[in-house]
């Protein structure tokens, strides 16, 4: 990466009120990889170097606390260490730097079923999981790849009560209580905290979620590790937080807006994140908001990020943090990167919205009706 555009920012705290020079530029994060018993022995073509693995890898964490910046002013530093020290020009004026980084992006590689599980909301996590960060977990999955017949199970059937679910856990039939959701590439699923769920085999998902790793398993198909030990279950806590009755999650009916050379697909917006997909074949111009940083998750295509007189190259399966005060920048696909009808770039953009009413207003300005907006906005 060439030198970043330098901005002078004033960093102040109780002990240091000196001026400091802080650069503003897109910054790529290096992934970390997590073994899982349901994972894959090959993460290609997304991570070509992660082929013919000795152990199954289930998750690539793209914005985990241990992910290091590949360039920019925080090069070599872990995200969890850099975040509290970032000035508002990077984080955005509304960011809560006292908390951990708010967004966790993963790629999930499922060659077998995940456990039947649930995640708590903020209120429960604050009371019961302070040692684990005290943050709940609402998430969204975007299907990057899907083998024929692949599915996820999200939410409970309408007639499932607490007592029925307890019996199903004891009988090993908890999966039968969940709603089956077939997935094809390009589909998305919104999974609010409290929603019982599992992910089936044959999927590569991009998961956008609150930055939390609190999971309560209720059933794990009696799997055991190499030492014959079963993974821990958390039935009591799971039953505390699972939502019975009307369900709020499920497959997203997205809103698409086509304008000039770009198609934007809006999947979900909630207090914790907004997520949308951009598809384009020519150079596009966009700009940041001073209120929040954004993450660009490149799915397909190669090209160049350009800001001011500077530029850097992007490629698939990369996540870039775009600082809030960067202002105008451009994304320019390589003309010869992906020849044929699929040429161009597709990416997911995610950020923490400052206000869902303002988000709805922005959609209306693009010609999206209130009824259409209600499909993707989750207050």
Task: Describe the overall structure.
The protein is 12% helix and 37% strand. With 379 residues, the chain is mainly β. Strand 21 and strand 22 form a beta hairpin.
**Would you tell me the overall average pLDDT?**
92
Strand content: 35-45%
Number of extended strands: 25
Level-2 CATH architecture of the largest domain: Sandwich
Low-confidence stretches: 5-20, 337-342
CATH superfamily of the largest domain: Jelly Rolls
Largest sheet: 7 strands, antiparallel
Notable traits:
379 residues, mainly beta, Jelly Rolls, seven-stranded antiparallel beta sheet, 7 helices, 25 strands, globular
Present the secondary structure layout:
Elements: E1 5-10, E2 19-24, E3 27-29, E4 32-40, E5 57-61, H1 79-82, H2 88-91, E6 103-110, E7 116-118, H3 122-128, E8 139-146, E9 151-156, H4 162-171, E10 178-182, E11 188-191, E12 197-199, E13 203-210, E14 216-219, H5 235-241, E15 250-251, E16 255-259, E17 262-269, E18 274-280, E19 284-287, E20 294-300, E21 303-307, E22 310-314, E23 318-322, E24 328-333, E25 345-351, H6 356-365, H7 370-373
